[in-house]
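pasting for the record
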Amino acid sequence: MRGKYDVEGWRIRKNGTPFFITGSVSSSHDDAGNLIGFISILRDATERRDAEEKLVQAREQLAMSQKMEAIGKLTGGIAHDFNNLLMIIGGSAQIFTRLLDPKLPKAIEAIQTAAKRGESLTRQLLTFSRHQHLSPTVVDLNASIKNMRTMIESSLRGNIVYNENVGEGVASVKVDLAELELAIVNIAVNARDAMPSGGTFTLSVHAVTANQETGGDRRAKAFFAIALSDTGTGIPPNLLSKMFDPFFTTKEVGKGTGLGLSQVYGFAHQAGGTVTADSKVGQGTTITIYLPSCADEQITSKELAAARARSRQPQRQTVLIVDDSPEVADVTSSLFEHLGYDTIYRDSAEAALKLLEAGTKIDLVFSDIVMPGTIDGVGLAREVRSRYPGLPIALTTGYSDAAKAAPPSLKILRKPFDTEALRDFIHDLAPPRPTRSSGTPMASSTTEAVRRN
């Protein structure tokens, strides 16, 4: 018997712990060629095997990240133009409700419903691609989730029991609350569809420390994990890695867009955290969102904001609307006018600056971000703040990388928006001064108030 036999596999140490070995077994012969025994050489390769597995996982994560980035750029560009169309459709529908007789309420309602559905789809696309402009605030995670109970239950079905395990202590996180609500609803809807015969949907919140699973912003040592579990059909292992891919769905044609969980993925990463999924066929699925803690930051006071809004006295003011799309500008003007404002329209930043230089009295500049010419909306905001520090300016966009260049103090309203969203947005701006702003710089006492916004 001659030759060598390679071996590898798991073995058990005397203390009961497993380890992985590699090695070989070969025959030993004397000078006459007679077999005298066997030589077995074994090596402990546990660390090497672990390193190889981690390398494979890292390569898979890199490939996933590159794929997500490529799809994100594509969807972001499409959603930008689509949001402008939704702005025209939704805004026009609101105008119709004020102009037409009541014979067409169902048609108008259908238009508004379609616009809202389109807005939801683009939000999911943009959040996944991390190009959605978010408005994060510091919130009490426990209290916020408790306030969502009615919304979550309405997303489920009568034969599904909703359990909630949320603590009483303050759990501070910095998130866009609307996006967090959308993420939880998306998961709840998927859980509902996975339990056609009923079951249990459980939401729990607990604190965790940073590790490989939490990922996200490693500067945050503490995270809060939002675990959402169902007792549904589960997901096969070969599909589990694809469940956060956009447009991937196991549902029948027409039953789902495949964008719900991709929005969850984008939201979690944009908030500085991550999301994981664990599932067993026939037992159910658990999706966990990890969000970094920000216990050192102060929770936003909604009561203070509401009181500030109530203290403002309505007065007829003039808004300068800057947008390269006349159709979008017409809708925006109508919404402002419905709220009691006069409007002036210009189609570029250069034209808007000329109007201000001429001394036209303006109380607020409201500009789109993406515009042709040498100055976009962010550049216009810089010019206005530099030349006319007493003149408030706000931006709007459906999507733009240019929004990332805007300073945090600059307010941005995402398209499409309706009258209610516009009213709330205006309330969050600096209180108007008794003397209307114009093309001449205002006193320094006003400047500080504008900088705080």
